Amino acid sequence: MTTYVKLQNLLIGLMLTCSAQAAQTNDDKTNGYQIYQTLHVSISTHTNNDCTRLNVYHPYGKLVGSNTFPYEIDKNDTATFILSEGIATGPDVTLTYKCGTDTFTVRAWQSQCWLAYGCDAHGEIISHTDALTLDNPVDTKNASRLWNQFGEVHFTVRNK
What we know:
Blueprint lengths: L2 H20 L6 E2 L2 E2 L3 E9 L4 E10 L1 E2 L8 E2 L3 E8 L7 E8 L2 E9 L10 E8 L3 E3 L4 E3 L9 E9 L1
Parallel strand pairs: 3-13
Antiparallel strand pairs: 1-2, 3-7, 4-6, 4-8, 5-7, 8-9, 9-10, 11-13, 12-13
């Protein structure tokens, strides 16, 4: 690749980044973070029992503001929380819940948003007992620095 083409690509990237940042307002921030730096995670339970959190493994990122990892999710309800990027990583969390006598473990993570694109959000079902079903594939929406959109991961748990 010639030096001219490399310089041209660099200038295009800078223009995209600057135009995306210029379009932002103070309302676009989520407790000090840009919207695209956040991952919104929700868990819906369509079960016969309330679900109680057994474990949380949160190696990367931070909870935003007054958000907490839901301790209890009422049956037929949805719990949501927001994570932000870390210094050099995207957010990542693994949660285990118990609904009556049944358990499930899920993981949500997002790539760090360095470029205008590439802020991929992911949801993974790690395990669940036989009496539960989790919607698969997991419902996800990627974050975008260019469009200043947050990432989303939504898990749905049901009784069989």
